[in-house]
Every structure is written in C-alpha cells, then in structure tokens.
Amino acid sequence: MTLENNDWRPDRWSTNIATKLFGCIGWFCALFAVSASTLTGETLQPNQVAVIAAKNNRNSEQLAGYYIKQRGIPKENLLLIEFDDEDILSREKWDTSVRSEIAQWLKVREESQPIRCFVTMRGVPINIGPAETRLQESLIYQFIQGHRERLHRRLVETVNALNKLAIDSTEVSSPDVSINESTSTAELIQAYEKSVQQTDLRLQSIISGDRQPTIDQFSRLITDAGGLTLVIQNLNGQLQRGGSNLPEQQKAVLVQQFNQFNAAFQTLQSVLDGTESLVASHETMQIRVAVIERALGLVGALRYTDELIANFDSDDGLASFDSELSVLRRPAGFDLRIALPNGLNVKYFDNPLQVVYPTLMVSRIDGPTWPICKRLIDDAMAAEKSGPLQGQFYFDLRGIAQTSTANNFSQPERRLEDVLATLAGNFQTKFASRAVKNSEPSLFAAKSCPEIAIYCGWSSIGEYIDIGDWKLGSIGYHLSPISASDLHNTESQTWCTQMLQRGAAVVVGYSSFTTYDHFLRPSFCNPEGFDGDKTIVENVFAELEWCSVRFVLIGDPLYRPVLK
Predict the structure, then answer these.
(1) What number of other Cβ atoms are within 10 A of residue 262's Cβ?
(2) Largest CA distance in the chain
(3) Which of 170, 305, 488, 543 could form a disulfide with 521 if both were Cys (CB 3.0 to 4.6 A apart)?
C-alpha cells in the first residue's frame, strides 16, 4: 500500500534487492489472494439502481413505480418491504428481519444484475433506533483492542530489528528515533519508514558476497510490515520502470510473479467476502484482521484497527436507515456502535483498504409531502434536459475564517470550514460574480440570495432562514447537526424540510443530532464533478467519509447536474 508522508517507496529499490525479496516470499502466493472490489470508474446506470418502497403503502408503491418508469429502471430492481407507519425502525427488527431480507434479495438479484446503489422511497423509515449493549459487541471491541496492542508490539519489534541491521555498518548513522509500546501509530510508521531507508543504504554499501544474509532478513521484516500489497506494488514498479527495455525472460518472470501475487490478493478478498455472511463475533473479526494483515501487513492492519477503535461510537447506536443500508455488505451486527469508513471515499481510490470497506451508494426520495417527492424526480430530469444550472452559487462561511483559532471551534469544524472556503474560492475563480461568499459574522440575511442554484453554509440549528428562491435542479447543504430531522412535518423549521418546500431538488442533512466529524465535506459539489457525467450520488459518496451514521441524501440519485 502507499504510505502517507513516505519519502522512500518500494519502487525505488534496486532490481537485485527486489528480486531477492520476491524469491524469499514466494511461499505467500500459495496461501492467500484478492479480487479487488474496486470502483468501476463507470457512471452509475439505471439498471444498477435498486428501489426500496414500503409494501402495502399505496403512496410509497406508486412513487416507486413512477420513479422506475421515469428513469428506466428494471422492474425486477424493486423491493417491497412491509414497515409500520413510523419514521423509526426498531434496531431489533432491523437486525432480525429487515437487514437479512434486503441482503438475501440483493444476493439473488445480483446473480443477473450487479447493484451499486439503493434509493429508498418515502414510507421507508428514516432512522434505525438505538440498541442495548450486547455482550458480543463488548467481546468484539475487547478483541480489537487486544489485537491492536499485539500489532503495535510486533511493528515495534520489526523497527528495532531493522535498526539493528542499519547500524551494523560504519557508513550509516544510528537512527535517532526512540520507539516503545507508547509510541503513536503515526510516529511508529514514520520510524519504520526511516529504518527501511537506513537498511537500504547499508545494503548498497556492503560488498556483494556479504549481502545475502542481510537481504534475507530485510525481506522477511518488510514483508511482515507491508504485506502482499507491498510485493504487488514492487513488481508493478519494476514492470513500469523497465518497460520495453526489460529482457524478455526477466519480463516474463516478473509478469508471472505479478499475476500470482495478484491472484493471491483476490483470494484474500474472497475470504473477506465469506465473513460477511457470518454472524458478527470476535471469532469472525479474528478472521478479518488476519486476512487484512496478510494483505496489508502490520502497517495496514494497525491502521485498520486504529480506525475501528477511534470510531467506536459511545452513543446508543442510532443511525439513519440509508446510512446503515450502505454498509449492508459488511459483517452483520458489527456496525451497531461504530461509524464505519466509506470505501467509496476518494481517499480509498486505488487503495487496498477499499476492499475491506464494501459500500453501497444510497439516496432517498422523500420530503414533507408526497407531491414534493414526485417533484424531486421531475425536477432532476427537467434540469438535465434544460442544460447547465441557472442561477447563483452561495457559500456562507459565517465569518468562521476570522475566528477559526477560537477555543470553542473544534478541529472537525475547522476542516469543514477549510473545505468550504476552498470550494467558494473555486467557484469564484470559475464563475466570477455568479459565486457569492459570505465571510461576515452573521449568516446570509432573509431574501439576500436570489436565484439559488447551489447553497452551502453554516449554521442556524433548527431555525431556517428564508434566504431566497430556489432554481430548477438546485442543491442545498446546510451544515447543521439536525438539518434533516422532523422531515415530514411541514411546520418544521429544520433546513432540509424548508429547502425542499421551497423548491430545492437535492438536499443533504442529518436525521438526528450528528457530530461534525461525521459531516459530509461540502466539496461534493465541486464544479469539476458536475460535468453531466457523474451522478449526484457518486459525487456525494466520493466525499462522504463515514457510514452507519445519521447522514441522508435526499433527491434522485441518478440526477446529473451540469455547471458551465
């Protein structure tokens, strides 16, 4: 895998050292392998969208039928599920029936048609309720903590062993990094990278006859640390560097090795896929972390367990139905108390961790009234036919840039503000006066934003401000922790409810109180992404970091906005 802040890369090794490394770990391909479940790179198509509606709810079924007809979605992609007429589905019902019903339907449907996206209709619950703490969840968490300590200890030992190899030479100075079991993961990885650099220098300094024992030990250590991904990356680097200059025999050997290790990587993915049908337990998690360690090494596995621990949620497990649906392909039950990484996020593009985080895109056709739901479909299609979005682009920074060092401004808020400020600058560069940025201490005032095409801004919690009129196909994102709560109450002053009633075609929000570290980055509406090719749901999920949270995207997922 590609390590962050890494000035040393495996593809810089000499061919001789790399060849020795591969000879040392040939046994590995006989054990494991990965079928990369990566992004296709192709735009979402109607036949890849599945629709969920409420069974025996006439309005929900009719809305689903209308959407399927308008977008040309196969009728076989419709799943009807019986729900009570409530916005919250009990966690028990989700666990014991609804989740498995959807998963089984998806398994059968994908025998003939791959599904990449779900769209839920009004009538499908908005939230999945809280759950009582379970012994099994506690055991899983205890296992992850214990395994993380073991991974950390082994990587410390690996770094110390590499340092010993490095200082066994007068040409190389002793590493100046002191590490132990209290060293942070970031510092430990940095120390590992430095120790590899130092050992590589030593290998270049000693005479050929004395190299082999050191090369063998070096190979074993970095294979443990970097996993199969390191080997594949290295082979690919040799093939790319050598190109047509490689002797045919050497190239054939490299290609054969690359194919063997890549097949091994695909087998690992098959093992991971197999765990998804198992009941969540610490035994299942043992299998997953063992597979991940084989694929990504100590470094990748340590990062993975750190992410799980860091995002183990201390609240009651409340999540939006759609966000929980997006992780349907993860092991059942394990998502109750943690925010789970979104494998479709841009940071996982061409990253081995993407196969660890299989994710479905999900959007919702919903709103305060049934006519508004139908309008979301009609407006999206009409906007596509009418050409580029008309109107203005508004970005409300609420003066945060001037006060971002204040003690009451959290780090997640700072990151969001930075993204929002950059986004506003991009729009001003591309669209000049059509882009309006507010950096004043107060929010945009009522009626100060005529002809809204796109609006992103902070943060009037639960108190909508009627800032202006919304154009055909318009998109609204108010960065508020409860912006999509109380969605079906026409009197509610939450932002999603009011933006929808005033004409927005797409809104983004949170179905219950959400912390800022789980917020969608506003960069989903970057002008480069709205080219008429990628859909709104693809743009959103490329910037969404977390699933199994309280996030909702309301609007036609197949909508393709155009900005020019």
Answers:
(1) 19
(2) 82
(3) 543
Terminus-to-terminus CA distance in the chain, angstroms? 37
CA distances from 423 to 151, 243, 434, 531 (A): 39, 40, 14, 16
Cβ atoms of 281 and 136 closer than 8 Å: yes
Q: Phi first, then psi: what are they for 157, rounded to 5°?
A: -60, -40
State how far the Cα of 229 lies from the Cα of 319, in Å rounded to an integer.
Answer: 34
Question: Distance (Å, rounded) from C-alpha 231 to C-alpha 246?
Answer: 19
CA distance 234 to 19: 10
pLDDT digits (tens, 9 = 90+) for 137-186: 667 778 888 888 999 999 999 988 888 887 764 444 444 456 777 888 88
For residue 277, count other CB atoms closer than 10 A to its CB: 11
Average pLDDT over residues 432-449: 92
Q: What tens digit of pLDDT does each residue of 346-377 get? A: 888 877 667 777 899 999 999 999 999 999 99
Alpha-carbon torsion 415, 420, 421, 422, what sign? positive
Record the tokens describing residue 72, joined without a space. Answer: 């040309």
Closest CA to 211 of 13, 15, 17: 17
C-alpha–C-alpha distance, residues 537 and 556, integer Å = 8
Q: What is the pLDDT of residues 451-490, one digit of tens each?
A: 999 999 988 888 999 999 999 999 999 998 888 899 999 9
CA dihedral (212, 213, 214, 215) positive or negative: positive
pLDDT at 253 over 60: yes
Nearest to 424 by CA among 520, 507, 527: 527
Q: How far is CA 86 from CA 91, 100, 121, 259, 556, in A?
A: 13, 20, 13, 52, 22
**Residue 468: per-residue pLDDT:** 96
β-pair partners for 396: 438, 457
User: Which backbone phi and psi does 357 adopt, to 5 degrees?
Assistant: -120, 65
The stretches of 319-450 forming alpha helices (DSSP H) are 321-325, 370-386, 400-403, 411-431
Tell me, rounded to whole angstroms, the distance of Cα 13 from its chain centroid: 32
CA pair distance 322, 127, nearest whole angstrom? 8
* Cβ-Cβ contacts under 8 Å for 345 (sequence gap 6 or more): 541, 542, 543, 544, 545
Q: How many residues does the chain have?
A: 564
- Alpha-carbon distance 374 to 434, whole Å? 29
pLDDT of residue 284: 74
Exposure b/e, 462-501, CB count within 10 A at least 16 = b = eebbebbebbbbbbbbbbbbbbbbbbeeeebebbbbbbbb
Number of other residues whose CB lies within 10 A of the CB of residue 399? 15
- Residue type (1 letter), 513: F
